[in-house]
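Hi P.,

Sorry for the delay on this. The queue was packed all week, but I finally got your sequence through. Input first:
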Amino acid sequence: MKKLIYIAAAIIVIAGLFAISHINAKEKTMTNNNVLVAYFSATGNTRGVAERLATATGADLFEIQPEILYTDDDLNWRNDKSRSSIEMGNKDSRPVIANTIDDISKYDTIFLGFPIWWGREPSIVDTFLTSYDFTGKTIIPFATSGSTPSTAEAAENMRPLAPNVSIPNGARFPVDVTADELKTWADEWL
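Then the structure:
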């Protein structure tokens, strides 16, 4: 009878230790203090993807906010005189960002999200890239777009703006991409 009690007690202790180690491992995967998801979203589509990516990876989240918000008229790509058309027509355009990241040095990996405008990243993303020293970091672009198939052109444009940084081509996602799909994709860099 004593043997059964000892065996039962041992099983309970082992099960408890396993449960604690499983919880600790899960907590470790839920926070990545050296990972940032930074994004610009004019209409909210990229915001949703960025929020799911940050949650799935345990990363910090930062919204790149323009000093002057974009109106529907500003975003009218059919109007050559709209704000977005003018900015995108000038590769040197650097719209002002209203907020800043306190300490970019604590991040090693940055997922950078944006909508695709005119086949590439919006000019405000270029402002972000030229606002910090990203030396030695990895910046992975991700984008939303209704028609552009990839972020390769955006990544190509971004590389000269952030020298000494690894910027792979990244990926384009539909707005309804799941957190699990984003986590699987992001794990390549984590």
